[in-house]
Amino acid sequence: MKKAIKWLLVFVLIVIITAGAGAAYVYNGIQPVKASEEPVKITIEPGTGTTQIAAILKDEGLIKNNFMFVSYLKWKSEGSKFQAGVYEMTPGITFDEIISRLNSGDVVKAEMIRFTIPEGFTVTQMAEKLAEEGFVDKDKFLALAKAPSGIDSELLKEIPESAEFIYRLEGYLFPETYELKKGSNEQDIVNRMIAETANRLSGISDFNQKLEQSGLNLNELMTVASLVEREVVVDSERNVVAGVIYNRIAKNMKLEIDATVQYLLGKPKERLLNSDLRSVDSPYNSYLYNGLPPGPIAAPSLKSIEAALEPKSSDYLFYVTKKDGSGEHLFAHTYAEHLQNIKKSKATAK
């Protein structure tokens, strides 16, 4: 009897020791590794399972025991919401902190580039600005604007391929402030900008219906919008000028818009001379050719696109910029009235 009790006590002692050792093993296995101020980057690829994630964490020195981490996940019913990405963690964080980071997708933020394209810029001006800021190669950017190979946009189907175009994507790279991942190339930037144009157009209420009612195709609409953009400073005049453009086309009058000549000259001149107006023989020159230019001459703002889509009805056929610095125009129904407005404008010059 005494011998049996002795063996029972020995067995109980062994169980206690084993349980204690097991508990100590588990406790030690779930404790953080030695703290360090040096962060560690880990990459979790899409579809990576918890066992693989635990192995990555162990190999990178963020946990002591990958089996314990997987067991802890099962005990806590975690792991199903882990998100892929690049993470930065500091040795010494707990299991719960790691789980929280992986659940929330608290990934390392990619370095970004940021640039702004002003309204009314041409693709040449865009290329020069972006090249100066170190984001593109000017020639590569312009080559894409001329022949957009590799550009993935449904909008391209609505932009005709014409030998008369100077740049096929002129007017279709939306003027906006952009943020893209550092290292984005010319193709990435052009794709993002044309996607923004498509997004803005789709955001206009009943856009397709209004375009159909206007009797214009997209290229004609964007061309008118670009003319409005380059001619108008005061927002309230955008739809009035759009109306004048349509009125002159309806009467088979040349548009005679200075901005079309400026576009052809490459670098805008502060003041055009009469000799400049007919100096370049091109279908873009609205002093030489009737109707609209082959395509846009600049990147129109949303306000100009909306003005071209819904012009203000009037009998105006002429306008001249006031010389008082306001940026406003004087509008006229007849050429005689227009000549009077020119005199009035000069009289207010500052």
UniProtKB/TrEMBL annotation:
One of its GO terms (biological process) is cell wall organization. Keywords: Cell membrane, Cell wall biogenesis/degradation, Lyase, Membrane, Transmembrane, Transmembrane helix. One of its GO terms (cellular component) is plasma membrane. GO terms for molecular function: lytic endotransglycosylase activity. The record marks 231 as: Important for catalytic activity. The keyword Cell membrane applies. Pfam families: YceG. Its EC number is 4.2.2.29. It catalyses: a peptidoglycan chain = a peptidoglycan chain with N-acetyl-1,6-anhydromuramyl-[peptide] at the reducing end + a peptidoglycan chain with N-acetylglucosamine at the non-reducing end. It comes from the Bacteria. Belongs to the transglycosylase MltG family. Functions as a peptidoglycan terminase that cleaves nascent peptidoglycan strands endolytically to terminate their elongation. This is Endolytic murein transglycosylase. The gene is mltG.
